[in-house]
Amino acid sequence: MGKVGELSIRFPTLRPSVILFLLSLLLLNFGYLRVSDASLAAKNSEFEEERGILRHQGRTLLQSNISVSFLVLAQDRTERPDPLDHFNTYREGWDVRNEHYWASVGYTGAPGFILAGAWLAFGLVTLLVLCFCCCCCSRQLKGSHQGGILFPLVLLLILTGVAVVGCFLVYDGQGKAHDQLSSTLDYVVGESKTVVVKLQNTSAILTESESIDVLRFTLSDSRKTKIKNLNVQLNAAANTLETQTKDNADNISFVLDKVRLAMIVVAGVMLLLLLLGFLFSVLGMTALMYLLVFVAWILVAGTWILCGVYILLNNVIGDTCVSMEEWVANPSAKTNLADILPCVDVNTTDRALEQTRATMNETLTGINSVITSNLNNGSQTKGLPLMCNPLEPSLNVPGCADVDRVSQKWLPYVCNNSGASQACPLAGRLTPQLYGQLNSSASIINRLNDSIPFLLDLANCQFVRQVFTDIRVQHCHSLLKYLKWQYIGLALISGGFMFTIWLWIVINRRRKHRFFHHSKEMNAQFIARGASPHEAVPPKHAT
User: Fold this and answer.
1) Residues 411, 412, 417, 422: is their CA dihedral positive or negative?
2) Nearest residue to 404 via CA among 392, 390, 418
3) Is the pTM of this model over 0.85?
4) Whole domain around residue 411: which residue ranges?
5) What's the pLDDT at 26?
6) Fewest beta carbons less than 10 Å away: which of 158, 297, 374, 410?
7) Which of 405, 426, 459 represents a domain boundary (last residue)?
8) Judgement on whether residues 436 and 503 belong to the same structural domain of the protein
9) Please, which contacts does 3-12 make with residues 24 or more away whose CB atoms are closer than 8 Å?
């Protein structure tokens, strides 16, 4: 009978902690299988350019109502089950404005979300079972359990170390990922500002050309009207590019700052809970420990959710990097990448090129005519060089001077007039005022000529192609690596906490049982010596 009674005491004290610990292990293994199953396809296709495989063949081009084709970006990579479409395969490519894209990429983070829900449900069931046991099966604690505390303590130290490593991975990863994203945003905004400044400079040069007046030569009224109309479009294009890029950057920066703060708080709070839980369980602070268990249980669900979110973000950024690569190879196609960095309207850039060339030709032809008909007739200015046409070199006359050096060629023909009068003492010499007008005209032509390569790049969206190429080559790989650090760190935190919570309980219960058993032995010794049981004072700390 004694053995049966002994078994009845050990059975309820050992079984719950062991069973709950094993259930946690099964739950973590279930989550691992779900993570491996859901994200395997996305990870296998990540950064295939590193292996020299460019998967541009077989891309689907859908013809729209206009003459520009629509390119389905990252089509192979984004083929995932779509929960909003009965889990059919999503095939519309990278599109951040498509809810089905977000649903399909969100499915890759489902393991974290499922584990969070399962962990909360498991905790609720456990709480109900404990409440039932306390209310219906309450009985006085009996101290025959003599299980060792060393092995759970060593295991707790190991798992606490794993969770601490996860905290540092999250903290370090979020810092580096934030710096990488901020650097990328600064680069995009800087390139956008450069384009805006060049557009505004081109508009200012064209406006300045309207004021050319050399010996009654000016641009035609029709040309001035076209320049005014073009300037309206150029300023609108510059404002649109600047505003859209700045708004996108501000929105992303706002989210990044909030995410960074949240991850710092998560890493710090979880690290603090680890230390407090270890101390409370070892020192036997039962009430505080169970309060900590309740808080930690909820936070573990939150870290699993964050883990799923970071898996999702890792796939979104990977999709974006692949989309940039594919668009660079097909820049004429219409895509949704304009949400990141838009190209300037093609019609506007074409008109800017046309008017820039036309203004250059009209100004250069007019100035050369003035030199030929009015200035090269005088004895002192005979042989005044004409300006070469950089747009049509085959039509240049022998002896012409390049527009960037023609001012130096004209300088010897300027009269040396030290007085206030603008007249020259010798007839036929260039007056300082006339030289200034010619020099200003040549400067306008030269600056317009310098703006043509920029406008050509703008028409081909070359600056956007260069930005996307630089982002893909210099930023994508590092960014994905640091995001991976974070969701691995979150998985370590969550998995470590799932076990440490039960180890806190196991260590606390075994400590209480050892304390009870030791007190019972001391009371028995005092009774054997003839002392009252109440005189036996149990030690304050059980070892």
Assistant:
1) negative
2) 390
3) no
4) 367-459
5) 37
6) 158
7) 459
8) no
9) 6/144, 9/142, 9/144, 9/145, 10/144, 10/145, 12/137
